[in-house]
Fold:
Amino acid sequence: MIPLTPEQEAACLAEVQDSDPPRLLTLDQLADLPEPSYLVEDFIRARGMTVLYGPSGGGKSFAALDWSLCIATGQPFYGQAVQQGPVVYIAAEGASGYYSRAQAWCNSRGVAEVPDFRFWIEAPNFFRSETTALEVALAELDKPPVLIVIDTLARCLVGGDENSARDIGLFIQNAEKLAKRHGSALLIVHHTGKSGELERGSSALRGAADTMLCLKPDGANLKLTCEKQKDAAEFDPWRFHLEPQNESCVIRLGDDVGRLSDHEQRILETVSESFGTEWVSATKVKEVSDIPKSSFYRSLNTLVERNLIEERQATKHRKEYRLTQTANPVPSRPKPSHGTTETVPSHPPFSGVGHGTGRGQE
Structure:
């Protein structure tokens, strides 16, 4: 292990001394604390801990790398807002394949370079707190990372037992200690167990996580589900697929032909019935559709991606939306009169949209 220099030790000590010490809070002081923010909206909480798990070869690293590169460049992730900042990606296994993956992402996004992104291709042992070399490298960066990715947990738990709550607790404690020193969020990539349903090992990992995400094959697509979201609503499933790009692949949204989620169908129905072919603001559509904000904007962006809703920049700070011709609804039911107890289907089908797999609720 490489020891910290006196200058690095002094810098770390100064950082700790400059931070606010723990204190007892009143209810009013608690209310004044800032609300959680996200590096990638819904997916990765700033200064929090996100766990992404799934079976081997199921696309986990492609998703983690895509989010990381979006953060490092400020590129939105399929309509999800991104907070830009430096990223350090610990590629503890299969490091040789990451160059082609990152190059494929850059080519697909038209990005020439990513200066705020660094790979660490060794496996620091967070179980035994053998992370000194990594700490030295982080201290030498011009700006601290806003995200540290650990890919995978197993490779950074040498000597520890994944089934032991104590060992996983030590892993989490040491990883969070490193992240908190730099004000970073953690994204931990992990595997499923033998059943293929839940994450492998102790439930202590799930207990400590702010967000639990599961990425699994689903037919020809990949389905991403949110299984835990601390202090926020769990979002609807997303569907992706891996698309060949150069000598690797990139994550893409699920095939355009597929089932719409309930919220996506409600937005199409609202725009059609309440606004027709007129341009309308997202705020008005949200008010009429009565969809929670956490789901509304993601569903609206999905419809834009799928060419079912058209988008234009009305003013510098405001966009407007309307149905495309592809999304013209097929009348399938009459509207019930007020006061009736008639039961009607909640959402009609829309032309141009099939009923196979696609991103949406189950």
In short: Residues 165-182 form the longest helix (18 residues). Confidence is low (pLDDT under 50) at residues 10-19, 329-362. The longest strand covers residues 221-229. The domain at 262-327 is CATH 1.10.10.10 (Arc Repressor Mutant, subunit A).
